Amino acid sequence: MKAVRIAWRVTCLNFRAQLEYRAEFLLMIAIGAVWQVSVIVFATVLLTRFTGMGGWDSSEVLLIPATRMLAHGLFVLVLGRMHFVGRQIQEGRIDIYLVRPMPVHRQVQLAYFPTNAIGDLTVAAGLMAGALSRSGLDWSAGRIAYLVAAVVGGMLLEAALFTAVAAAALRFPAADYWSNWLEELLGTFGSYPLNVLPRAVSGFLTYGLPLAFVAYFPAAVLTGHGHDTGVPYWLAALSPLLGALAYLGSRLLWRWSLGHYAGVNG
Amino acid sequence: MSGSIEVRGLSRTFHTTVRRPGVAGALRSLVNPERVAKHAVSDISFDVAAGELLALLGPNGAGKSTTIKMLTGILTPTSGEARVAGVVPYRERERNARNIGAVFGQRTQLWWDLPARESFAILRDIYEVPKAEHASRLREFDDLLDLSSFWDTRVRHLSLGQRVRCDLAAALLHDPPVVFLDEPTIGMDVVVKEQVREFLRHQVEERGRTVLLTTHDMTEVERLAERVVLINHGRLVLDGGLDEIRRRFGSTWQVRATLADAHFEVVPLPGIAVLSHDGPQVVFGPEGADAPTVHQALKAVIERYEVTGIAIDEADLEDVMRAAYVQAGVA
């Protein structure tokens, strides 16, 4: 409880601090929204020009970017500071965190308030509302619960990928650049049914970099395409759980890397 | 809780890739990297008693910061042992963090976008300091460091001196028995430096804190430390009291005498050399291992010659440490 209270207090203070720089605050929200412009364009083109994609109709496809965007927005809000760990290492911030009686990972997350997450989440909420309103599915309690689990699982899977990169950056700060590539990849391929891609690419995005588990597989399960994903149905259905397990694994990796932290400048 | 520091055979080795010169060399390093071990700290041992202020000195790259990082739990040593207030810092990082305060002069532990006072409040929660105790300690630090005139300003807008004063307060608000200061006064003006030194002296003498200080400022060492550990290339080369170091390396005094008779024959005295003789002006200096102290030399010169004027030039700590560095192979 104490940890939650401190985290909440620091977050409120950080948020208040951001509010005091009005122009900077609004710009950050705008950049969060504008960053997702490719997704918005994709959704618009999808709905106005095509009837479907890879055997999915447009309203079903829309559930993929909506789930991914919401998961991404929550990741940026809750765990997204892993993205800039390399910079925090270079600035010696990690050294400071290590001399405080608080987990370093938590301190990294509490370093500042991610104002851009407001823009991300606004776009994501709009997209999800649009996807749900166009969906012809029966939104039973079970399906809604699975969607919520999918969003949380997607957030954790994205966090796992960035935490793994951050863990590598603790030992090799230049590894932080990989997080830019990762973000680019998630933005580029995260919105499509991956069965439209060549088998090698979709295989890589399933077993190499498990992007498919963020939104594609959960959306497939929700829309009844779960048997046509190229992986066993149970594996696709377990995406939220795999996200949670991947996150736990990445935290263990982070902890191990922190034990071997060498810092900069000796 | 005892605030002592025990260091036994502490070593830290980093592995780096050798940089070969030129583009071809860089490409060769990429294809066939040559890894070398860099011994940042090698087998150093020393103790700091509870309530003692020890200055850890050495040139840039000597291993001072690496030593402090191991004692604060930031780095894990390659070998050796260290205990800080009874805790092995790199094994029990969070427990050690409750016992120590740390100030790294070139980086802040305050939240950059928040006023310093908000950072103090967050640290109070993190360290679980009772509110009344926190308020009373903050009042005390305000009296000594004059914090209240700027503690409501965001840290990013503070001057260096203001920021480091806030950092000092932040490091000590949870009343740690041991404090690590890595070049705390670097870049400060003389007035603020003196204020910080006064604060540190108060923390050692009145509060009994153990302080391990690294600095390149010999005035600071002279004002604050009674004992010095000198390291170079990661090895401990000298561990002693300031008096002892002065005795070993500081006998670089000069006695400048003006003789009553310019034609008086000047002869060397035991352990005292004539460095120059120009008319009535004579400069004496120490000679040999058994050279007298400056006061003994003064007495001997006055007894031997009729003098109309006399002055003493005694080496300050900067000179003493320079001599120590030279003899220790540092310079």
Structure description:
By secondary structure, chain A is mostly helical. Chain A has one domain. Chain A has helices at residues 2-19, 22-34, 37-49, 58-78, 85-90, 93-98, 104-109, 116-134, 141-171, 177-189, 199-208, 216-223, 233-237, 239-259; strands at residues 52-53, 56-57. A two-stranded antiparallel sheet of chain A has the order 1-2. Chain A starts with a helix and ends in a 7-residue tail after the last helix. The model of chain A has no long low-confidence stretch (mean pLDDT 89). By secondary structure, chain B is of the alpha/beta class. Chain B has two domains: 5-247, P-loop containing nucleotide triphosphate hydrolases (Rossmann fold); 251-314, no CATH class. Chain B has helices at residues 22-31, 64-71, 93-99, 116-127, 131-145, 160-172, 190-205, 218-224, 242-249, 294-304, 317-327; strands at residues 5-17, 35-48, 53-57, 79-84, 100-104, 178-182, 210-214, 227-232, 235-241, 254-259, 272-278, 281-286, 307-313. In chain B, strands 5-6-7-3-8-9 form a six-stranded mixed β-sheet, sandwiched between helices. In chain B, helix 9 packs across helix 11. The A-B interface holds A 2, 5-6, 9-10, 13-14, 17-18, 91-93, 95-96, 98-102, 112, 259-263, 265-266 and B 14, 40, 61, 63, 65-66, 69, 72-76, 93-95, 97-98, 100, 102, 104, 106-109, 111-114, 118, 122-123, 125-128, 154. Chain A: Keywords: Membrane, Transmembrane, Transmembrane helix. Chain A: InterPro entries: ABC-2_transporter-like (IPR010390). Chain A: The chain crosses the membrane at residues 25-50, 62-80, 110-132, 144-170, 204-225, 231-248. Chain A: This is ABC transporter permease.
